[in-house]
Hints:
Elements: H1 2-10, H2 16-25, H3 32-42
Helix pairs in contact: 2-3
Amino acid sequence: MCLLDEEYIRHSFKGVLVLNGYLRLQGYQINEKRVRQLLRFSLI
Length: 44
């Protein structure tokens, strides 16, 4: 969650698909729906 927040703060113009790809490159197995839910939850 913290990694996702940091990346979104640095690049707020990136969408869910790009952030999902970023997390997959970092080695996380995460679904697009989960990324969308986490972004909604963090209220950024």
